[in-house]
Design brief:
By secondary structure, the chain is an alpha/beta fold. The protein has 12 helices and 16 strands. It folds into 2 domains: 2-46, LysM domain (Membrane-bound Lytic Murein Transglycosylase D, Chain A); 59-279 and 331-364, Glycosidases (TIM Barrel, Alpha-Beta Barrel).
């Protein structure tokens, strides 16, 4: 396996000849689009050995909405140990709310490929936003909490889930210990039946880090209770924020440094983004909104606009600039180089796995690289 960065004058055929591999492999593995043009600076996954889908040696999960393309799901599941179905919600009294589309086929497809289907529990309201009032209502009321836990246990047993992932964001500081108690009570209810529990954590870099995103999460206590923890190590660059890398490795490393001081490394899963952003420039806070794009799509945007792709060695992330219809743009995304940097971090710290947000887009080179590493 090799990662090759395209230079001026390269073609698929010249690269194939240099590495003595079929041009068709380069095209297929990197999802190149006919007539197979390349962007200068584009990173290609190269291998002279066809890779058959197989489970990695460490836990690998992927989040998916219930409207995922069946084809994308079928292609991705062979590489996953866990499928996080997004998401189940609840009301203020702890009544469980199913996702808008039936998830039976996703649960069945997961089991058929040896992948554990996981129920993702979120406090999303009717507008699709995280609502910490729902969290407060349930964790502060024993009857509501018991109601939610009981309904979760029932649906786990009847629908065939293997575990629950608790993804609560913007927990109020006053609810921190009550949230921990909720997770403990949920674990006590699930574990006797063989179900697992995981918790998604905002990317903290210190125990007392201020901010609504961080203050309600007790890393040490939650790490002790849960079977594993997902670090949401992405969204430094985000839709309404300034143009920058989505998951800069220097910032990701700071989060992992803190996390391993509070949680056993083997319980920690690193969050990995399967997307990028395209920002119109200049950025104006409160006005500029980036467009979410896929990583394969990002390269095609560069090719169509004759843009060269650069690579930032601090964030270990690719980016490029282009102009369309008189508007300047900057794109940050992930490629096999940035993903390899994250895989190297997982190995360096001995982490237990990784979790992708999200698997709605097929990105073959990523999964081949995963197989090559784990």
């Amino acid at each position: 396996m090799a990662i090759y960065v395209v230079t001026p004058g390269d073609t698929v055929d010249t690269i194939a000849s240099s590495y003595q591999i079929p041009a068709s492999s380069i095209i297929d593995d990197n999802q190149l689009v006919y007539p197979y043009a390349l962007a200068v600076g584009q990173a290609l996954y190269l291998s002279d050995t066809p890779v058959r889908p197989g489970k990695p040696s460490i836990q690998t999960g992927g989040y998916a909405y219930t409207y995922i393309s069946p084809w994308v799901l079928s292609q991705t599941l062979p590489f996953l140990t866990e499928l996080f179905i997004f998401s189940y919600g609840f009301d203020a009294e702890g009544n469980l709310l199913p996702p808008p589309l039936d998830d039976s086929s996703m649960i069945s497809a997961a089991w058929q490929t040896g992948t554990r289907p996981i129920l993702t529990l979120t406090p999303l309201d009717s507008s699709g936003q995280f609502n910490n009032s729902l969290i407060s209502s349930v964790v502060q009321n024993d009857a509501y909490k018991s109601n939610l836990i009981g309904q979760l246990l029932d649906i786990m047993r009847t629908r065939g889930f293997a575990g629950v992932d608790v993804d609560f964001e913007y927990i109020r500081a006053d609810d921190r210990d009550l949230f921990t108690a909720f997770v403990r009570d949920l674990a006590d209810a699930l574990h006797p039946y063989g179900f697992t529990i995981s918790v998604a954590l905002a990317p903290k870099t210190s125990r007392d880090q201020p901010g609504l995103l961080y203050e309600g999460k007790d890393y040490a206590a939650l790490g002790e209770i849960a079977d594993n923890i997902l670090l949401m190590t992405y969204e430094w660059g985000y839709k309404y924020g300034p143009n920058m890398a989505v998951a800069p490795i220097n910032m990701v490393r700071r989060v992992v440094d803190y996390a391993v001081s509070e949680i056993p490394p083997e319980k920690i899963h690193l969050g990995i983004p399967n997307y990028g952003y395209d920002w119109p420039l200049p950025f104006e806070r409160g006005k500029t909104a980036a467009v979410t794009i896929g990583n394969v799509e990002a390269v095609q945007i560069a090719i169509k606009n004759n843009a060269s792709i650069s690579f930032d060695n601090t964030s270990m992330s690719p980016y490029f600039n282009y102009t369309k219809d008189g508007v300047s743009h900057e794109v940050w995304f992930e490629d096999v180089r940035s993903i390899q940097a994250k895989f190297d971090l997982i190995k360096e710290y001995g982490l237990g796995g990784m979790g992708y947000w999200q698997i709605m887009r097929w990105w073959k080179a990523n999964w081949l690289l995963l197989t090559a590493n784990f």
